[in-house]
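DEPOSITED CHAIN:
***
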Amino acid sequence: MTEVTDAGDPRDADAFREQLRLAMLSSADVFWCVDLDDERRNWMSPGGWALLGLPPGPRVPTLDEALARVHPEDREAVDRGLRAQFDTGVPLDVTFRLVRGDAGSVWLRARARLAPAAAGTRGTLAGTVRDVSDEYARQIKLESAVVEGRMLLRELNHRANNTLQLIISMLKMQARAVPDANIREALDALAIRIKAIGLVNNHLSPMAGAANIALESYLGELVGQWRLGLAGPGDTVHGAIDLPGVTIGIDDAVCLGLIMNELVTNAFKHARRPDRGLTLLITGQCDGGRLSFEVEDDGENGPGGAGTPSPAPTSGTSLMTLMSKQIGAQVVRHPVASGTRVEIVLPLRSDAGA
């Protein structure tokens, strides 16, 4: 322990040393100091011997002797931290395993700074070290629980998707067996809606929590499904979803997917021209505190384009109205020279990610 030389009364110095000793004994940290030029000046607080797994001795281990006990897999990280301290002055803060012979190894967190050196010397490295084995074990247990939870969630989603796929298959079988064209159309539309709902489970965001959906990938897969399932010969479906890192709640994602699904199916159902295929552009972007989505076609406008309600309310338009109210979205039709352009504006909630 360093000498206290600025006390006027030696009794004050003795009292200070005793107070410092008691403080060190009461701390979970081990205090240490390594003189890089004179190992005789090395010291550490009493708990250091037990932490190193060594019996108390007359000489404190040197830096090289301590580093030799670092687990081989962790030496590179410790060396990197020391080089950063020596070369650039970045304080050492590294967690590593220390091998203690037959007693196994412990996880330690060491923090240190290099004291200013006198001319012709390398200086003194001083800091603390703490046993963080229990904290590390809790962290490992927590990470394992998270991984296990995600695996369970994927399994549940897989089973849910299988169930939904079975329902879709049954609807399609029923549609093929029904002679009434209107009923067949209604069953096909219902199958497409169920598919849009089922796709949500594929895009749960692991970084944003189990209840949030990665919006860009979800809408991107929806566009692919519309391209494969609805577009016919000569039709073109373009997707421009620019929402990297944006997540929304799973319930909001389901509602949004159903709204856009109705707009797209309406376009293919009503806006096709008899002389050529339909071109459909689907976009999505984050504009400040709101999300904006558009479905635009170059087909027939008037009472037939995307999102254009029929003269009498239908289940599709009623569904869009209900879903829009549920998530606080606005569905706006913009005038265009040819075709139809419908925009969905959705406020970005505070619990969503962007």
